[in-house]
Write a structure and sequence with these properties.
The chain contains 10 helices and 14 strands. With about 290 residues, it is an alpha+beta fold. The relative contact order is 0.17.
């Protein structure tokens, strides 16, 4: 089954909802960066959140960058989503040792750490990007995204994320949801939503049972009901190209390019987001020098 993201509203119009199946894109991210289980779980949650948050912008050619620095062994996590929800990213340290809360339950909070920040950079195709940052709450990422929306965008939000790692260390299921209260939501709606979230339980359990994002959001909203308005395929997608890499090399300047050329060796450039490697010969570097 391919990954996709679904958007909707509660029947009364007071709750905005987004749900996602992100299993394949998380698998692809883990494969590219060769992450160990703890790093896969943390990275996968961040990719899942970034996909939903990027899709929520609805600004053509816009993008959203999610940066998490918690002081834990994984270092920094960076994820970038386009306005559709296609996402890419990287982690500073992919080889994180196994840390469990209890047997079979990976400790994402300990992997990410709590002494740091979650930062959101929204490129809305305006003069300057919007930047919002909050201190980490738990390092579990879902809680931290919830805190970001509440503190930085003043939007009451519940974010749940899950990545289940199989015994063979591959990603078994991944996904999540975001629900947001709109202005004027009465207490009755809030109470029903809180009860629905408690009733639904863990995202990974629901996904493992075969539930779709629509099923999960229906469980969360309960008696409030959900009207689904848009379904969008999403994937792990990098926008690197030889033209972009060439432009980056030119930006190094004449001195550094000359040193690279004089080494007389092929110069490989690996994209930090994917496994694409661009190789430049000394002759290629010489041609770039003419353009500096």
């Amino acid at each position: 089954m391919s990954d996709y993201l679904v958007r909707g509203m509660s029947m009364d119009g007071f709750v905005k909802v987004v749900g996602i199946r992100s299993t394949e894109l998380v698998r692809r991210g883990a494969q590219i960066h060769k992450t160990t289980p703890n790093a896969t779980a943390a990275f996968g949650r961040a990719l899942t959140a970034a996909s939903m948050m990027g899709n929520m912008q609805k600004v053509e050619n816009g993008s959203m960058t999610l940066q998490i620095k918690g002081g834990g062994p994984i270092g920094s996590i960076v994820c970038v989503s386009d306005s559709v929800g296609n996402v890419r990213g990287y982690v500073y340290e992919p080889n994180v040792p196994l840390v469990e809360k209890y047997p079979g339950k990976l400790d994402v909070g300990a992997t990410v750490g709590t002494q740091g920040t979650l930062t959101v950079i929204r490129d809305l195709q305006m003069k300057e990007p919007y930047v919002g940052s909050v201190e980490l709450v738990s390092g579990e990422i879902g809680d931290d995204v919830t805190a970001y929306f509440a503190q930085s965008e003043q939007t009451p939000t519940a974010c749940a994320l899950g990545v289940l790692i199989d015994r063979d260390t591959n990603v078994k299921v991944a996904g999540g949801y975001l629900v947001q209260l709109l202005p004027g939501a009465p207490d009755e709606v809030i109470d029903k939503l809180e009860a629905g979230i408690q009733r639904a339980g863990a995202v990974t359990t629901m996904l493992e049972q075969g539930m779709t994002p629509e099923d999960i959001l229906g469980q969360v909203c309960g008696d409030l009901g959900v009207v689904f308005m848009e379904t969008t395929p999403v994937e792990y997608k990098c926008y690197c190209s030889e033209e972009r890499v060439t432009a980056a090399l030119i930006s190094l300047g004449r001195k550094e390019l000359t040193e690279i050329m004089e080494e007389g060796k092929s110069f490989p450039v690996e994209c930090q987001f994917c496994d694409q490697v661009y190789s430049f010969t000394p002759e290629d570097i010489g041609e770039l020098l003419k353009k500096v």
